[in-house]
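Write out this protein's structure.
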Amino acid sequence: MKKIIQPLQLTVNQAAVDAVYIGTTNETNPEVEAETTEVGHGHLIVIANSPEFQLESLHHRNGKSFSGKVSKIDVTNSYRVDGILFSDIQADINEPDKKMTE
């Protein structure tokens, strides 16, 4: 599995926030492209707009909520969310032509 650091577009309390996925990608079967042989996993680093961050306030681009474990890191208003699957964040990957608008 390939290790990656990928910028994401997420929302906290319906406001766009910066986040980064650090982990691995899914491993697929080269003979059957749609077949995933190993699921990628990692964690997020989320830079919130407020010191009051709860996992329930973090959402994907499509509005779906996250599950995982939150811990505070030593950066102002920043948090680590563990237990993230690569397949769950693929649609949130920040591509220059798909920026979120408010």
